[in-house]
Design a protein that fits this description.
Distance between the termini: 34 Å
Order of helices and strands: HHHHHHH
Strand content: under 5%
Number of domains: 2
Structural class: mainly alpha
Helix content: over 70%
Oligomer: single chain
Length: 209
């Protein structure tokens, strides 16, 4: 598959464009991870709530277990202290919910950044490069195997001003199997893709006497 042009200047431009696109994608991914880490820092209060709730639950749990041993009023006192244990569970659960919400927001923010980066790169870089690679590969194969079809591609895809440089009526010349005009049309199509034209070593043989 022909990925880059054969002409050095156009190939250099393609390489630079590819490097810029790769840098854009890599930078976007780096920024996405940095943004995720920054958002995750907002979960610090939630983690503190988890620790505080766990400590509260543990402290009241121990106190309740000790109070239960007190004669006569132990059960009532332990029940009252159990309320503190339940409160610790509520605090810890609130902390967990906050941490989960922050983690979800961090993941969503990072995914959003990556999506934007890829949505920009897809239509402006990847798809054009894929289209070029396919067109250039076909053109290189046609250069020797089917130059007539390559000339026809030039007639259908190149602007009329370019075609008029070859002939006043290039379509008629193609229909009349004018080998010189066909070669020039094929070379125009190749040149538009940054490929080498048909040279004397690859002169058209179709219709030769």
């Amino acid at each position: 598959m022909r990925i880059y042009a054969e002409r050095h200047l156009q190939a250099a431009r393609q390489v630079v464009f590819d490097l810029l696109a790769i840098a854009w994608i890599a930078g976007g991914i780096w920024w996405a991870f940095a943004l995720r880490d920054s958002v995750l820092e907002l979960g610090a209060p939630g983690r503190k709530l988890i620790d505080a709730g766990a400590n509260l639950e543990r402290t009241f749990g121990r106190a309740s277990a000790s109070a239960d041993q007190v004669p006569f009023v132990g059960a009532e006192l332990a029940g009252a202290l159990d309320l503190g244990t339940d409160a610790g569970k509520v605090v810890a659960e609130a902390g967990h919910n906050q941490v989960e919400a922050v983690a979800w927001a961090a993941g969503a923010a990072a995914a959003g950044v990556v999506a934007v980066v890829l949505l920009v790169a897809l239509p402006f870089w990847l798809l054009p490069r894929v289209r070029y690679a396919r067109a250039a590969t076909v053109a290189v194969n046609m250069r020797t195997a089917a130059p007539d079809l390559l000339a026809l591609r030039a007639l259908t895809e190149l602007p009329p001003s370019r075609l008029m440089e070859v002939s006043a009526d290039p379509a008629a010349a193609w229909r009349d199997n004018d080998r010189e005009i066909i070669e020039q049309l094929a070379s125009l199509r190749l040149g538009a893709l940054g490929l080498r034209p048909i040279t004397s070593g690859r002169r058209l043989r179709t219709g030769a006497v």
